[in-house]
Design a protein that fits this description.
The protein is α/β, with parallel strands linked by helices and 292 residues long. It has one domain. The chain contains 7 helices and 13 strands. A hairpin with a 2-residue loop joins strand 5 and strand 6. Helix 1 crosses helix 4. The longest helix is centred in the middle third of the chain and has 24 residues.
Length: 292
């Protein structure tokens, strides 16, 4: 194959199509636990998280909460993945051998959002959220008291989440969608020095925490007793005025190593003795390989 601009443009279009098909076809899980938030600049301040949205009786003037004490900024980051194509493979018409690599770029770009979102969830025990406390902590300040959304323990973490509302416990902030790009001019330095054309993907995004009240995590044993305690704790959360938030956990999120334990709690109707399971169907089980 003769290498010229027309040939290289054709390769780029072909690779771009393969990339997009792989990107569109890659399964993801982040949408279940995180809300997508657009970004028009380098960062976004989510200070509004300090006011959990609830209606109240309008008596006199509107009650406006001062959010000056809160500041929670998510700063966008740049991400990329790149492959190289040998000039000899183009000349020898062997470009098809790179199809799986381009497909891999597409899948990686799509599923990187999963990696970021669930890595942040796992880091919630040691990462701050909008109130200045760790996302999973024992002393979130509410109306002068300390409220816990952490079950303690030292084993494998599991999570109970309320995912029924537009605002989710986690945030995926997107500044720029994944873009397929190429360094494919015959006179590029990398081609001249190493006989390599480069193709890749880049985007700008980041993740952060939403309302801690919609999440509970524990490293204690995943069993019926601890599940019941986590569920009761979440359903008792109140706002600064003492009004219940109406939190009802909808999903039990676990890594693959806790799949069996999770199934026994929310997907098995009776135990080995035939006794009924009061927690059957009280949450959907979400098994996340990114938490392994």
């Amino acid at each position: 194959m003769i290498i010229n601009q027309a040939t290289l443009q054709g390769i780029y279009k072909s690779f771009s199509t393969i990339f997009r098909q792989a990107f569109d076809g890659a399964p993801t899980m982040w949408e279940t636990v995180a809300m997508r938030a657009p970004s028009a600049g380098r960062s976004v301040d989510y200070k509004w998280l300090g006011d959990f949205p609830m209606m109240k009786e309008w008596v006199g003037e509107r009650a406006i909460k001062d959010l000056s004490a809160f500041s929670y900024e998510i700063v966008n980051k740049n991400y990329e993945a790149t492959i190289e194509v040998d000039r000899d493979d183009i000349e020898d018409d062997q470009i098809g051998v790179y199809t799986p690599m381009v497909q891999g770029l597409g899948a990686a770009a799509k599923q990187h959002r999963d990696i970021l979102v669930f890595s942040l969830l796992a880091a919630g025990f040691s990462t701050l959220c909008y109130d200045g406390q760790y996302f999973f902590d024992t002393d979130h300040p509410v109306a002068g008291a300390s409220v816990s959304n952490s079950g303690g323990g030292s084993g494998t973490a599991w999570y109970l989440l309320d995912l029924s509302r537009p605002v989710k416990p986690l945030i995926l902030q997107v500044r720029k969608e994944p873009q397929f790009v190429a360094m494919d001019r015959p006179d590029d330095e990398n081609v001249f020095m190493r006989r390599k054309f480069r193709y890749g993907v880049d985007d700008r995004k980041n993740v952060g925490f939403g309302f801690w009240q919609m999440a509970y995590a524990s490293k204690d044993t995943l069993n019926a007793t601890n599940y019941a305690a986590a569920r009761a704790a979440m359903m008792s959360f109140k706002n600064d005025e003492g009004v219940p938030l109406g939190i009802v956990p909808t999903h039990l999120v676990v890594p693959p190593t806790l799949e069996e334990a999770g199934k026994r709690i929310v997907e098995v109707q009776t135990d080995a003795s035939g006794a009924g399971n009061p927690w059957y169907g009280t949450a959907k089980l979400l098994v996340v390989p990114w938490l392994a």
